[in-house]
Batch of 2 targets.
Target 1
Amino acid sequence: MMEIERGKGIGGTVEVLRRPFEHGEPAGPLRHSARSALMPWLAADDLADAMVVISELVQNVTQHTGGGGELVLTADAHAITIEVRDHSPVLPQVHPPDTHRLGGRGLLLVAGVTRAWGARPERSGKVVWARLTTSAAAPGEAAA
């Protein structure tokens, strides 16, 4: 179930989406929820980048953990933070591209379209996060 919070958080940060997902769940509804939540915050090009990042991070959870997770999107006037939580303690590793392997380029793609990304362990697993700079004004602010 999708939860959207419209109030201000710490330092002007707003949680715009918190959505759990299950292993094997179709990705379309999750992407649709994320797109709808981020549209007021991002220009079209930035939104496309955010959707790539969300797809890659969620796919990593379902491919490498065998379980589900939770997508959390937060925003402030300057950036969007995408967090994907799961129950595996194994932190992701970036591998150089290998012409003999089909996959393995997702985190390189995430690194290429974000300002920063990383992972941190948590008591019940880990969080993989990525931060995208916004080029549009936050909702309710006048565009410069």
Target 2
Amino acid sequence: MRSTRSTVTFSNPFTLSGYPGDLPAGDYEVLVEEELLQGLSFEAYRRTATYLTVRGRGNHAGRTELRAISENDLKEALSRDHATTENKKDQSDAALSPQEDLK
């Protein structure tokens, strides 16, 4: 077995499939566990689990939870976050555009 850690950043509040409520924007640690595939002539690993580290808020401050997620659910959440950020950017750019018909 091997474990790797990485960090993902959400710019907006987001949801995860199978979990109630929104999670706040911010940096989240992702833990990926993989097992070595036996019987091959080269070293290869298979993903066995992916977890998102969620830090408690409010009454649960100081508590840390590892939420099991699928790789696809994580990719979808990041994709939705990126789309939301781009949409907000496009809307703010439009709001800042000069009005040409003031005459």
